[in-house]
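Input record (one chain):
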Amino acid sequence: MKFSKTQLEQMIEEEASVMMREQERGSGGLIDINAGPEEVLNKVPELLKDPKLKQIVRSGLTDAAGPDDEKIEIKPGTRTARDLQPTQSQIGAGQSLNDQAADEDFGGGEPTNLDRAIKGGKLASEGGEFPILVYKNWVLDGHHRWSQFITTNPGATVDVVEVVAPGIKDEKGALALLHFMNFALFGKSPTKDFKGANIYTLDAASIKDQALTQIKQTKRGNNVPEKLFKAGLIETPTPEAAANHFAKNLANLSGPGEFPRLVMPQPGDAGSDDGFATTPKGAGDGAVNYLNPVPGDIKESKNLMSISKGRLKQIIKEELANRKREKNNG
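The corresponding structure, as predicted from the sequence alone:
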């Protein structure tokens, strides 16, 4: 096979381009996803402001490694509530306790969230019923759903969805990935500051007082002791026993996690209809370019000829030998 000077120069240029991208990836890209959520929150908005770089977050299909190294999956499963661990350092006392101690039904009647916590599965909110989003046994989104299960029934089997993605090393990287997905798919990753009393700052006596108030002074609170008794969770169907049950469980809530509420991802607020309860389009096909993104990922051609360094040397050697023979024969 003969190659013109132009063809040889093109192959050399393409091989050099591939090698340069590999070197860029080896020395680290513009974002280190495993550095944690602050890394993404601080750096990705600046990339999106740059006309030349804003497409980098969606360049997973055209980067040097292709789509397979960044295919994200959201997988359904179950966990025992007490086996889960928080990543968030602030968990609301009211959000953890009040729906359970007041037997809140959101105007829809039974089953209430107390019924759901006793049974297991998913809890309800004004937005619907959603599983808890986890990485392994770490809660990423849904901390107050998890803490409600702990309040009433720590042994409940709860519905979860787990984010599974190549290159994610731990829960810190998983939180960062959710933010990166929000930016890539919706152009934003809004966060919320924490308000109210943090359950991790309250003792059992304070939690018990709050529980008794909800049980005795809310419309449906009087149902609580009997429901807990019938479920075998307390020995006597009294407000005192129910309040002690809630207080003991919440006072022993595992945690706190490492990260404040202000850096936690909110897929639902970003634009996900189901809060990433299923694999979103654009993530499952590898388009989200979260692993060491570099500028060269954006303009990578799908038809670019890729050739190994060894093969390139072999081709050049063969071509030089051909030309030498032609010269000798001439």
